[in-house]
Amino acid sequence: MRSGLYNGLLIKLLTMNRETKNTLFTWSVLMISCSLLVIPLPEFLSFFRPPWLSLSVIFFSIMTPAGFGVFTAFFIGLLADVLQGNSFGGNAMALTLIAYISYRFHLQIRVFPMWQMMLSVLLILSLNELLVLWVEGIQNQMIFNYIRWLGILIGALIWPIFMAFLLNLKSKIL
Amino acid sequence: MPLSGETTTRSRGQYSASKLLVSLILSFGLIYLDYKDQYLNKLRSYISATIFPMYVATNAPKNIFLNLKESMGQREKIVLENQRLKTENIVLSSKIQQIYKLQKENRRLHELLDSKPKSEDVFVLAEIIAENPDPFKHRIIINKGSKDNVQINQSVADSKGIIGHIIRDQIFGSEVLLITDPEHAIPIEIARTGLRSIALGTGSYEEIQLSFLAANTDIQKGDILLTSGLGEQYPSGYPVAVIEKIAVLEGEPFLEVLAKPFAKLTNINEVWVIQRAIDQTIDYE
Q1: Contact status, residue A53 vs residue A68, Cβ threshold 8 Å
Q2: What is the torsion angle, in degrees rounded to the nearest 10, for the CA atoms of residue B264, residue B268, residue B269 and residue B273?
Q3: Is B146 a residue whose pLDDT tops 70?
Q4: Nearest to A37 among B62, B130, B133 (CB)
Q5: I need a labelling partner for B261 at 20 to 30 A (CA). Which of B2, B81, B186, B234 fits?
Q6: What is the pLDDT of residue B177?
Q7: pLDDT band at B117; cut points 50, 70, 90
Q8: Closest chain A residue to the Cα of B177, Cα to Cα
Q9: Cβ contact A74:A59 at 8 Å
Q10: Whole-number Å distance between alpha carbons of A60 and A23
């Protein structure tokens, strides 16, 4: 009985069409990066937390834009806002914009050498951080601290590994 | 690598400028509504309730680790702690005996003065399940929400003193803003002199700050700060902090006063949510 159910699920997963699998993959990566945003770390490590969600949004917009879109970025941004306890709509707005911008330049960024790619990721991540800070500033909740930007720098530095890992995973699943 | 041209042409519609515009207008609307008024609280608490398992899951590794650490403690340590708790219990129960007497006396005096005694607060025990990951935001999430009749603006304390108040309701849990958060301010009075002031969070878990106290204010190191009950946010008379440092800055009209919260805000486990029974009078025996 149990093995039958399992086999059925496996067959269903194998015969699932490419698009459904792609959507499933996208959403699971997004959910995992969302949880990585709020997973508790020891205090000294919490300054080095890379912006996982922004990195995944950039990845999907540049590398596999088919299963992703501006609206997806918007919804996942709202979720991140609620999860992080930030002002409603701040992350949503920032992620929407960086998804759009990354897609606009995705053909160029894809063929860049790695260091230029990392530089453009750094720029996009900084834009994201500035937008979030701006929204916090509107609501008088902004706490400016240079240490906040460490995470951004680390995000850009781990980009090559992050990208290679996700591309590899995707080619194995699909 | 899935870098075919086909994927890019297929996806063009999902990144159209019109969709961007719609999302931007939507998010600006949300930001405005969230800032202007709390219209969105209901929506937000529903979304929080649906993703509540995510909080529990992300905090599971830490909680399991802490539990393991606790249960691995040696037997001797536990025996010692048991002894300590027993003596503490005896001391506390003898203090309670005096409290009954004081309460009775208080009621009698109130009767003599023909005034209404203050109503008693109700306490709800809650446990912390998550902390805000942002090191600059001192917020925690506890496991009691509107399901357990815990509401926004109620105060939260641990066994030592006030730790903060509830700012968001998530149905199965609620978010607490700690007194050390830079956005937080709590009306206090100095127990020795009755001087009222406001204590602001500084962003460090170890201190809160009293601003705008004139240089000739009667204040000493070791003075105890209680909630004053002004502003109707916090109930009066709960301990908050103890004055730790007073500095006279030359050329500045005000003192720089720092106080250390009684509650240990870095490792909170169990907390009390204080529910004020405003219109409830105590029945006389």
Answers
A1: no
A2: 90
A3: yes
A4: B133
A5: B81
A6: 92
A7: low
A8: A85
A9: no
A10: 11
DSSP-assigned letter for residue B119: P
Q: Check if the beta carbon of residue B233 is closer than 8 Å to that of residue B188.
A: no
Of A84, A75, A129, nearest in space to B26 by CA? A75
- DSSP H or E stretch at residue A149: helix A149-157
Three-state DSSP class for residue B9 = helix
In chain B, the residue whose alpha carbon lies closest to the alpha carbon of A103 is B15
Query: Burial level of B232, CB count in 10 A (0-12/13-18/19+)?
Result: exposed
Q: What is the mean pLDDT of chain B?
A: 84
Q: Is B276 helix (H, G, I), strand (E, B) or coil?
A: strand
d(CA A116, CA A132): 24
If contacts are CB pairs under 8 Å, which of residues 60-89 in chain A contact chain B? 61, 63-66, 68-74, 77-79, 82-85, 87-89
Q: pLDDT tier at A113 (50, 70, 90 boundaries)?
A: very high
The dihedral built from the CA positions of residue B163, B164, B165 and B171, taken in this order, carries a sign that is: negative
Closest CA to B7 of A26, A88, A129: A26
Q: Among candidates B223, B23, B265, B105, which has minimal Cα distance to A100?
A: B23
- pLDDT at position A2 is 56
| Number of alpha carbons in the 13 Å side-chain half-sphere of residue B248 | 8
For residues B141-146, average pLDDT? 88
Does residue A160 register a pLDDT over 90? yes
Q: Rounding to the nearest 10 degrees, give the CA dihedral for residues A51, A53, A56, A58.
A: -70
User: Hunting for tokens 């005996």 — which residue is that?
Assistant: B97
Tens-digit pLDDT profile for residues B155-168: 999 888 899 999 88
Q: How many helices (H) and strands (E) does chain A have?
A: 9, 0
- pLDDT in the model for residue A3: 63
pTM of this prediction?
A: 0.79
Instruction: Say yes or no for a CB contact (<8 Å) between A39 and B132.
Output: no
Buried b (16+ CB within 10 A) or exposed e, B80-116: eeeeeeeeeeeeeeeeeeeeeeeeeeeeeeeeeeeee
Residue B282's pLDDT band, with cuts at 50, 70 and 90, is: very low
- If you average pLDDT over residues B109-116, what whole number do you get? 81
In angstroms, rounded to a whole number, what is the distance separating the alpha carbons of residues B96 and B211?
Answer: 36
